[in-house]
From TrEMBL:
Domain Adenosine deaminase: 11-327
Cofactor(s) of this protein: Zn(2+)
Claim: Zinc is one of the keywords in the record: yes
Presence of keyword NADP: no
Residues at which substrate binds: 278
InterPro entries named in the record: A_deaminase_dom, ADE, Ado/ade_deaminase, Metal_Hydrolase
Cofactor info, note text: Binds 1 zinc ion per subunit.
Stated family: Belongs to the metallo-dependent hydrolases superfamily. Adenosine and AMP deaminases family. Adenine deaminase type 2 subfamily.
Protein name as it appears in the record: Adenine deaminase
Annotated catalysed reactions: adenine + H2O + H(+) = hypoxanthine + NH4(+)
Sites where the protein binds Zn(2+): 16, 18, 196, 277
SUPFAM superfamilies documented for this protein: Metallo-dependent hydrolases (SSF51556)
């Protein structure tokens, strides 16, 4: 994909980015070596060749396996610093960054280790470049709700950094309502709320209905299948819920960029945004994702690109000062 000058220069806001999904093969090898971990791949090319998945569970297996190299505070620092530098290079001014604490605490890395590394990197990057990053804590939906609740409690001392909570991982058999109490508590604690409704899953439209009507989220991650039910689109518009769509990710876990759907969402006045999801695995950061939508059927014009960024800052949970600087 070629990134044209307009896309390169456009000030950007990213709202759907998993920090563990930015672990590039080069950094993965470097961290493995620093921590004395033997990776089952000869080199970076062999590792990239193993990034061969065609659905969500296939991706998730590779994604969780890759995290094993993240052990120390410095590892989390290096991971977030690399993303912040990449984001700055693409003129991303503000990002809300998902992290998956349970994927780390479940293998013996402490919540403090992880959060200190991530926040110190974002702090340093902010001072150096003006890039602003905030965290959104995702619960893993394939674990029990009790584990999510305990993780929510662990996060409370870090509310200055964590602007909201989300829900990700394997959707099959793990509907939004499984986490009803956890999200009610999160809301009471002042967190904003989003949930993944991944594209083309079994029960996608029912899950979208649940996140709107039963959970009361502030926005929806992916959520493209709402187009199958005009009542869902009407509810999304009426409540001003944004959708954080990830075209290159879609092309890897289902069929195609969903470019026609993104066009339709824009044309129907939904606050849709374009994001990169897991750019080390679904190759392409936010500029590449935008560039992929220049051709038909998305046919994004310069005005559409500006609208996408306005939508993003509008549905973001950024502080007023960040918002004002952006617009
Ligand atoms: N969907 C579900 N879980 C995830 C994703 C995703 O796109 N990325 C990282 N965890
Ligand atoms: Zn995601």
């Amino acid at each position: 994909t070629t990134i044209d000058a307009f896309i390169a220069g456009l000030p950007k806001c990213e709202l759907h980015l998993h920090i563990e999904g930015t672990l590039e093969p080069g950094l993965k090898f470097a961290l493995a070596e620093r921590n004395g971990i033997e990776l089952p791949y000869a080199d970076e090319a062999a590792l990239r060749a193993a990034y061969d998945f065609d659905d969500l569970p296939g991706f998730l297996a590779v994604y969780y396996e890759g995290m094993s190299v993240l052990r120390t505070e410095q590892d989390f620092y290096d991971l977030a610093a690399a993303y912040a530098a990449k984001a700055h290079s693409q003129n991303v001014r503000y990002a809300e960054i998902f992290f998956d604490p349970q994927a780390h605490t479940a293998r013996g890395v402490s919540f403090d280790t992880m959060i200190r590394g991530l926040t110190r990197a974002l702090d340093d990057a902010g001072r150096a470049t003006g890039f602003t990053g905030r965290l959104v804590m995702c619960f893993l939906r394939d674990f029990q709700a009790e584990f999510a609740m305990a993780t929510l409690v662990q996060s409370l001392p870090y509310k200055d950094w964590i602007v909201g909570v989300g829900l990700d991982s394997d959707e099959a058999g793990n509907p939004p309502v499984k986490f009803r109490e956890v999200f009610a508590r999160a809301r009471a604690e002042g967190y904003r709320m989003t949930m993944h409704c991944d594209v083309d899953q079994k029960n996608s439209t029912e899950h979208i209905r649940q996140v709107i009507e039963e959970i009361g989220v502030d926005r929806i991650d992916h959520g493209v299948n709402a187009l199958e039910d005009p009542a869902l689109i009407a509810a999304i518009r009426e409540k001003g819920l944004g959708l954080t769509v990830c075209p290159i990710s879609n092309a890897h876990v289902t069929d195609g960029l969903k470019a026609a759907e993104i066009r339709a969402l824009l044309d129907q006045g939904v606050k849709v945004t374009v994001n990169s999801d897991d750019p080390a695995y679904f190759p392409g950061y936010v500029a590449e994702n935008l560039a992929a939508l220049r051709p038909a059927p998305a046919s994004l014009t310069d005005a559409d690109l500006v609208r996408l960024q306005r939508n993003a800052i509008d549905i973001s949970w950024a502080a007023p000062a960040v918002r004002d600087r952006f617009l």
